[in-house]
Amino acid sequence: MAESVAGLLARLGEPPAHVVGLSLGGCVGLALALRAPERVRSLTIVNAFARLRPATPITAARFALRLGLLATAPMSSVAALVARGLFPRPEQTPLYRAAARSLARTSRRAYIAALRALLGFDVRAALARVRCPTLVVAGSDDATVALDLKEALARGIPGSRWAIVPGSGHATNADQPAAFNATLRDFLAER
Fold first, then answer.
1. Where are the domains of the chain?
2. Mean pLDDT (the chain, rounded)
3. How far apart are CA 39 and CA 175, in angstroms?
4. Residues near 77 by Cβ (< 8 Å), separated by ≥ 6?
5. Sign of the CA dihedral 113, 43, 51, 165?
6. What is the mean pLDDT of residues 137-162?
7. Which CATH architecture has domain 2-51+131-189?
């Protein structure tokens, strides 16, 4: 995925980009910064990791359930489970519905490919090679990616900035947009 993004930026003749990625997108941004550093002006990684592991036993069980549904149920069932993990609070119902609709349109094949990419992603040994200004953002209530994985990511990237967004789950940009946007604006203003 990072190679595709690098190729697109090159074909468009774009200057180095401010790259912002959430979850899998954060991993893609990180891979882009490592594989094509000339394409990345700055990097913002939101609720991502250098290597995935479940945040808690409950998270591991939810992942196993997701795999079971992926093998046996319609994509709408997988989407509903994932969306509920992203937006669990009653006041987040509109966000839940929008996420469930969007995720349900993902093909099973594409979803499996994304899961494989996540499970195979491991750049822990390469983090010290990231040279662009980097912001690592963590939702304080993220039940998908453990806080310590995000903190380890920030510690592993030289000179990176670390920001925790209170009251935010995995989809920080959606569930705490004002705080997320302010954090991102402050970081980009210095670039």
1. 2-51+131-189, 57-116
2. 94
3. 29
4. 69
5. negative
6. 95
7. 3-Layer(aba) Sandwich (3.40)
